[in-house]
Amino acid sequence: MNRPLRFTLILLSAGLLVSGGIASAQSRADPGKREYESRCATCHGVDGKGNGPSAGILSKPVPDITTLARRNGGVFPITRVYATIEGEGVPAHGSRDMPIWGSQYRMQAGEHYADMPYNAEAYVRTRILWLAEYLYRLQVK
Fold this sequence. Notes:
It is a single chain. The protein has one domain. It is elongated. It is 48% helix and 0% strand. Helix 2 (31-39) packs across helix 5 (120-138) and helix 4 packs across helix 5. The protein has helices at 3-28, 31-39, 41-44, 78-86, 120-138. It is mainly alpha-helical.
């Protein structure tokens, strides 16, 4: 193999390795997406259209959450989204005391991490806000 071609292939390979590492780091650096994929996609689907693998076994259709803003006059309903994630007003998500996510989004979630000092309320609110921000990014234009 001639020298310029070998050099080009080495550069191309290095570029692919770096870009793969960047994509992987971006995935880890997106906590809202991680929250969504681990807590919501089972019912709402990876794309948010209500077509998750568990949607078919539910008694009510799972809503398309990519149209929340459109259904609210073009404004993303952040207060309603926050309350829903926290467990308010959606019977399928469970009661406010014990939403389907249990220890994840209740203010008492901190009880499960008692071995390390931190502000439990801030931790839970941050996770809810990460998720709400990701849902905002899923909205159709």
